[in-house]
Amino acid sequence: MPKRLLVVLLGLFASLSGCAKDYSMAPPPESEQVTVTVKVPSELEAETLQVMYRSQVCRRVRYGASGQRVEVDGFNSVDMQLQRKDQSDLYEAKVPIDGGGKCQWRLSNVTFGVMYANPAQFGENVTYGAGGGVVVIFDHNNSPRGGADIRVDGDLLIKKDYYPWLSEAFLGGYRKQVSLAGEGDIYVIYQALQGRQVYFEPILHSGFVLYSVQPKEKKEGHYTKYTYPDGSVFADGRWHPNFRRLQSIRLSMEGRE
Predict the structure, then answer these.
(1) Per the structure, how many domains does the chain have?
(2) Which pTM value belongs to this model?
């Protein structure tokens, strides 16, 4: 092999190897940003913002079920804390779209949400469960929590109703948790390819508490019992509260006040 060609190949190999090892990010100062803003109710707190970047330069290898080798975009995750704006109830983070670095990272998705700041207000040994989460996807890839439920053009304004859900579980060990019951699953997933402003306003209806008790034994016909804010009880095999029923109960009770 000619010496000059060998030098070129060695240089190329070194460059690729360096890229594979150096996954660090270096967002350029002039990078365009996505601003994430959360309006946090007094009983709740903002969760850590989880940011995922992807790279078509530094790819990774995965193996399928039959052992085939598959190359996928590289990925890198960063945690950011939303910062309070002055003394308001707004918390904000600015996320660079261009992650920079040798891998030329690009923003793929963000995950954030709210949770109870003090679960113990619902009783001794009560811990936080789940709910109140949002995922926003900025490219054509799925997020770690799946694909988009809702696709929007431009910026994203999210206003969602949530209810306190105090649950007791016995199977697999006793647990008492408070969660945020909302429309959909734990996370609502959006795709906003051109979004540069993401605003999330969770509306907490703290006076309408839902209770649930799981069966102590796993037997046919034994279901989790849900007690709704109006005192109605249902045990119909659902694993999750009936959000429409919660909304209907609240609107009916508020209409009588």
Answers:
(1) 1
(2) 0.86
